[in-house]
Amino acid sequence: LATKIGGKLPGRILAGLVILAAFIAPSIATAGIKAPVAGETLAAEAGAEDWSVDRVSALRAEGRVIFVDFTARWCVTCQVNKAVAIDSAKVREAFAKYNVAFLVADWTNQDSVIAAALAEHGRAGVPLYLVYPASGAEPAVLPQVLTPGLVVKAIETAAGA
Questions:
Q1: pTM of the prediction?
Q2: How far apart are CA 88 and CA 44, in angstroms?
Q3: How many angstroms separate the CA atoms of 69 and 83, rounded?
């Protein structure tokens, strides 16, 4: 037994646990995510509006900072970013302070208009996060993994603060 503990057995156990975790983790991560319901959008949540090209144009004409969340209910990264960063108190405070328009492009059912917008930004899927500055300049593309501080900083920059 001592030679097995000092030999390859612990490495095999560790490898087995890593493989097991790889199969279990996605189930745990998606356990709280509800399945999409026909006609339901993510934009109904948290004061967000449905994304559209026309809505972005109208908000840009008003000189508003715009945060666009291209997301889908089945996207684990999207759901984690929403829970950890977008729904955080710091981000909500920044949205309120700078009068940020929060738009959600719900790609749960892979809408072709949203797919075209993703492609315009070099993406084939979600997540994609855009922050349009009040100045009317091109939007900043945020990383696929968000933190509250990163989002707040992007909002402050877009607001010219």
A1: 0.74
A2: 17
A3: 13
Q: Which two tokens stand for residue 155?
A: 């909002």
What is the spatial distance between Cα 86 and Cα 89, in angstroms, rounded to a whole number? 9
Q: What is the largest CA-CA distance in the chain?
A: 74
If DSSP states are collapsed to H, E and C, what string results for the chain? Answer: CHHHHHCCHHHHHHHHHHHHHHHHHHHHHHCCCCCCCCCCCHHHCCCCEECCHHHHHHHHHCCCCEEEEEECCCCHHHHHHHHHHHCCHHHHHHHHHCCCEEEEEECCCCCHHHHHHHHHCCCCCCCEEEEECCCCCCCEEECCCCCHHHHHHHHHHHHCC
Q: Going residue by residue through the chain, which has 161 residues, state the pLDDT in tens, using 9 for 90 and above.
A: 444 445 555 656 555 555 544 555 454 444 444 444 434 444 445 579 999 999 999 999 999 999 999 999 999 999 999 999 999 999 999 999 999 999 999 999 999 999 999 999 999 999 999 999 999 999 999 999 999 999 999 999 999 97
Task: Establish how many alpha carbons lie within 13 A of residue 83's alpha carbon, considering only the half-sphere containing its beta carbon.
Answer: 11
